Amino acid sequence: MSPKYKDIIDGLSGRRLAVIGDSMLDRFLWGRVDRISPEAPVPVVRLESETTKLGGAANVAANICALGAQAVLFGLCGKDEAAGQLKNLLAERGIDSAGLIETKARPTTIKTRILAHSQQVVRTDREDDRPVDGEIVEMLVSRLAGLGPFDGFVLSDYGKGLLTDEALAAFISAGRTLGIPLVVDPKKGDYSQYRGVTSLTPNQKEAEQSCAMNITDGASLKSAGAKLLERTEAEAVLITRGEHGMALFQKDGGEFHLETEATTVYDVTGAGDTVIAVYTTALAGGASFAEAADLANHAAGLAVRELGTATVTSAQLAASLNEKEQG
């Protein structure tokens, strides 16, 4: 591994980031199918085990901590049994949940996946995605100010109602005032609500929806990158493209295309969380956009090798880089 990347990876452990967004639990019910139900033409899954992992913004925070950095999670959860599970999992990962607000107004978001023979049969979502009110936003902004300082902000938008236009404006303003990297994992929309962030990490489908165009070749990809930069006034946009790798477009005209590092793809669940966690932590440590994107690309290649939401350690990242350079 080059000295440049060694210094960046070694420096990840000294970073402290605020992760703001929609947290959830990812619940997996494992079993097998022996027959079809006599009541309806659906498989009967005989459940054998259950696992629960952090999802959404909570998984971003878990990925940051896996790198050896510190993460403080800001968001909402219900006053229910799932909230207790969420907090226990956060504590196990060393994630500071002091920015998490409990409310009776909505349940903790849970995505439940039923799998048979390692294949997903169905998913159920328990959630309330109504926009939060101004009082919640004020509470989060206050906690954000009181729990600093931070080296970077991650805005993890899963469209569950937390990151309203009002909330985004407040968090973006706070980040710009501090002069720290502010990166958003966006959802559908025209993205004008993200104006002022340092960078964005949409996947290709999200970029296409935002730009109202299909990305079919290099020219359309470049056009989408330019539109997103103009619309958000960001310094860079990193478009993740699955098996086609990633494309980085910078405000200063820089353009970088990264081929996928994934040799085996078992599950893409949570891969975007890994990307934004590594990308933002690296930027917070002083890496360039291209360097941060390269590290995030390597991390994504590792994350998709596991079933369910996964995290990547700095040691795994270093080993992946060494393997590539020696290969």
How many helices in DSSP terms? 10
Mean pLDDT score: 91
Distance between the termini: 11 Å
Beta-strand portion reads 25-35%
Note the main sheet. 9 strands, mixed
- What spatial order of strands do you see in the largest sheet? 5-4-1-8-9-10-11-12-13
CATH architecture: 3-Layer(aba) Sandwich
* CATH classification, class level: Alpha Beta
CATH superfamily: Ribokinase
Cα shape: globular
> How large, in whole angstroms, is the Cα Rg?
20 Å
**Poorly predicted regions:** 263-268
Structural summary, described in words:
This protein has helices at 3-11, 57-66, 81-92, 134-146, 165-178, 204-211, 218-232, 271-284, 289-303, 314-326; strands spanning 16-21, 23-36, 43-56, 70-78, 96-103, 110-116, 119-126, 152-156, 182-185, 199-200, 236-240, 246-250, 255-258. It is an alpha/beta fold and 327 residues long. The protein has a single domain, classed as Ribokinase (UDP-N-acetylmuramoyl-L-alanine:D-glutamate ligase), CATH 3.40.1190.20. Strands 5-4-1-8-9-10-11-12-13 form a nine-stranded mixed beta sheet, sandwiched between helices. A four-stranded mixed beta sheet has the order 3-2-6-7. Strand 2 (23-36) and strand 3 (43-56) form a beta hairpin. The longest helix is centred in the C-terminal third of the chain and has 15 residues, at 218-232. It starts with a helix and ends with a helix. The model is unreliable at 263-268 (pLDDT under 50).
Properties at a glance:
327 residues, alpha/beta, 13 strands, globular, UDP-N-acetylmuramoyl-L-alanine:D-glutamate ligase, four-stranded mixed β-sheet, single chain, nine-stranded mixed β-sheet
